[in-house]
Design goal:
Strand content: 15-25%
Largest sheet: 6 strands, mixed
Number of domains: 1
Helix content: 25-40%
Oligomer: single chain
Structural class: alpha/beta
């Protein structure tokens, strides 16, 4: 398994409309790929709290992460949209990472994005805060772990929340998959020959 960087070519296609070239985001697969399910079945299993999906995705992500990230950076699961248990937290805890924290807190329950609720990053940021018990020591960099990258609104809100406290903090987004809502038959990752693997830094 490899980690792929979200580069300007993806952004030019009109996907992930809230992201720009200042955002540092990576993913390990496609949610749906060339009329095939891609990682969708595994991610749906994760969302349901399926233990097999949690373990399997943790293993895949563990093999893709750069070693200097897992040794030096703080990994933060994206908080759940509701008060229910967060399977991303369970998955992140299975990774061999030196510093994992529940740094982000969502203040109120919100509808899931797949039901059509798609607020702007600024609107989402008003619903987030840092967990004050988790802020010390100051991280070297923050890696936000989430399941699916769609518009990028959730990541940008998390990044804004982190940078309220630490304005110059490196904030990295790591996603299990990216979803291309405007895709037709063109698959950018396949067209690239899967040559955009992320480096270790």
């Amino acid at each position: 398994m490899r980690l792929y960087e979200l580069n300007w070519q993806f952004l030019l296609l009109g996907e992930h409309c809230y992201l720009d070239t200042t955002d540092e985001c990576y993913f390990i697969g496609e949610y749906e790929r060339c009329c095939r399910p891609g990682m969708k079945p595994q991610i749906l299993g994760l969302k349901r709290g399926n233990q097999r999906a949690i373990v399997g995705l943790a293993r895949q992500l563990a093999t893709a992460l750069p070693r200097d990230w897992t040794s030096n950076y703080t990994f933060v699961p994206m908080p759940s949209s509701s008060g229910a248990a967060n399977p991303l937290r369970l998955m992140t805890r299975r990774l061999d990472i030196r510093d994992t924290r529940d740094l982000l807190v969502q203040l109120v329950d919100t509808p899931p994005s797949h039901n059509g609720w798609r607020p702007t990053p600024q609107q989402r940021a008003k619903l987030m805060m840092l967990h004050e018990r988790e802020v010390d020591p100051e991280p070297n960099a923050v890696v936000i772990v989430d399941d699916v990258l769609a518009t990028g609104s959730h990541f940008r809100a998390a990044k804004m929340t982190v940078r309220k406290r630490w304005p110059h903090m490196r904030v990295i987004g790591v996603f299990l998959a990216r979803a291309c809502w405007r895709r037709t038959a063109f698959c950018p990752l396949a067209a690239q020959g899967e040559e955009t693997a992320a480096s270790a830094g």
